[in-house]
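Lab notes, practical 5.
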Amino acid sequence: MLLTISTTYQPATELGYLLHKNPARLQTFDLNFGQAHVFYPEATEQRCTAALLLDVDAVQLVRGKGNASSLDQYVNDRPYVASSFLSVALADVFGTALNGRCKQRPELVTTSLPLQAQIAVVPCLGGEAWLRRLFEPLGYTVEVVQHLLDELHPEWGLSPYFTVTLSAECRLSELLTHLYVLIPVLDNSKHYWIGDDEVNKLLMRGQGWLEKHPERRRIAYNYLRHKQSLTRDALERLVPEEEQNDDEASEIEAVDEQASEESKTTEAQFPPAAPVEAAQKQKKEKSVRLHEQRLLAALEVVRQRGAKRVLDLGCGEGRLLKKLLQEKSFEHILGLDVSYRALELAQKRLHLERMPSRQRERITLVHGALTYRDQRLEGYDAAFVIEVIEHMDQPRLRAFERVLFEFAHPQTVVITTPNAEYNVKYETLDAGKFRHQDHRFEWTRAQFQDWSQQLAERFGYQVQLSPIGPEDAEVGAPSQMGIFSRHESLDRSEVV
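Output from the prediction step:
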């Protein structure tokens, strides 16, 4: 993992004093997860570049405590990407510069220098838009290069990995501080335990800029590894004069509903609709978050159908899986997601490693894509597809339709997706923008209805549509649900 920091300040070699690292020497530092090497690829009076090369011990990542996830044994990008390991290395290796101290050149500490930082590879599931939303408000010019999944197979498309170059005229301590905080935010993970001390660390490093950042809630939430109580504490202490209202509190909770899920402003109580009513009766709170409403509505539909074996396709971090496990009527549950990271988070959310063996036998987590036929999905009574289709490129929906409705062919399918017409109700959402940066499309009620009816006719299903969330007289509800029921009398050979 490589980070370079360059300057054209004259003389540029003053960068060595600020970093407390001699440009003429290669220096190596031992860390508890590997080694960090500091060297200077160029060091002239016109331009100077310092490089921090992080050599993470991949074997130790697997053998160390807390790394029992079987997925890590086979797929692990930690040695190669910018993550919380890099933040720790910055604090250990460039700690004096990070804290804004330099005995030999104290005047440079408070001087804005022309600086450029390049991160060789950074993971960012939110894409280029999320990268820019993090760094551009801080005054950086952001250059982004997104890498292919596989250079030998360009048809596989783009990966969530980027090379990022940040340019600005600022103090070196500011640049290092922004990198220290925001790199784990982009990665959306940390390799160590998160507690109250992390809140203090975030507030210390975020002082003077984080409270003004338009994405401060999401930054705090990701930095604190999705811990809502810590996030609330951080935000209350960060901006004490700004009391959080219900919408702001809901926003924090909404971010918790995804790794690859939708992040949006949430809504409160909604009027009962046919399949939703029983779910609302069961939920005694007066206010229910929108994503929770989706889960409860879909769950109630499948429960009423008497399903025993169920699929959660695009299961994400396992919020629905947790509810399904609580229902004794479901004999077997399979969760599938294209993201290894999401599956790891689902494992932790469900505490699979501590689950009793009989309970553990009821659930299977698998990695896979919904655009390829998968025999593991066959033989199930019902399938949940909650806020998933809008993350697919529309040309690939045809493959998804066959995978689910022709080959898996469950008795019941429940699909939910945002209602694009309702977007005008979100004051913070610009006109023409989607609710989430990873959405490839968002359908109106008419578009979803047309797609659902054509789908039902092609594969021998009946479909019932239902709103989810508070209904507006003009634009409808924020989410829409399609309930597909298979025609038992239709022969499989009749499917078009």
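Observations recorded by the TA: The longest helix spans residues 172-187. The CA atoms of residues 406 and 492 lie 8 Å apart.
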